[in-house]
Amino acid sequence: MIRDYRAEDREACLALFDGNSAPYFAPSERADFAHFLDHEAEKWMFQVAERNARIIGCGGMAIGADGQTAHFCWGMVDRTLHRQGIGTALVRARLDRAAQAGVREVRLDTSQHSRAFYERLGFRIEIVTADGYGPGLDRCDMALTL
């Protein structure tokens, strides 16, 4: 089940981050994610994937002021559950929401470790910044035209 994030999901989402930290996220990003959960999650239409009353994934999306572009953020799935379709379901839920809102392009940035996942879903690479998130963690800016 995918549903909107609630404040009581905070610790479970931080645990998801911790489980995916290195290689998927730089440990130094944890404070940014915690701040996001506390202050920006609603603005970014943040959602969680839940199974058996347990948070197993999350991800957000905000629609830009132009109404034509959306940006994805903080997508992650419990590391022990990778490659089971949960991440794909979270992406598709956000893409559906974007399409219903009339968005024409979705943008995101991710590391080289998640790049192929998004490419399989149709995102194209635009820019790769070596060590963009920290040593050994490249930033890959990607986009998908709806």
What does this structure look like?
With 146 residues, the protein is an alpha+beta fold. Helix content is 29%, strand content 37%. It has four helices and seven strands, in the order βααβββαβαββ. The chain has helices at 10-20, 30-39, 86-100, 115-120, and strands spanning 2-4, 47-51, 54-63, 69-77, 105-111, 124-134, 137-145. A seven-stranded mixed β-sheet has the order 1-2-3-4-5-7-6. The chain is globular and about 35 Å long.
Q: How would you briefly describe this protein structure?
A:
The chain is of the alpha+beta class. Helix content is about 30%, strand content about 35%.
Radius of gyration: 14 Å
Beta-strand residue percentage? 35-45%
> Which structural category do the helix and sheet elements fall into?
alpha+beta
Helix content: 25-40%
Mean pLDDT: 96
Largest sheet: 7 strands, mixed
Largest sheet: spatial strand order: 1-2-3-4-5-7-6
Number of helices: 4
Q: Terminal Cα separation, in Å?
A: 24 Å
Q: Ranges with pLDDT <50 over ≥5 residues?
A: none
Inertia-based shape: globular
User: What sequence of helices (H) and strands (E) makes up the elements?
Assistant: EHHEEEHEHEE
The count of DSSP E runs of length 2 or more, i.e. the number of strands, is: 7
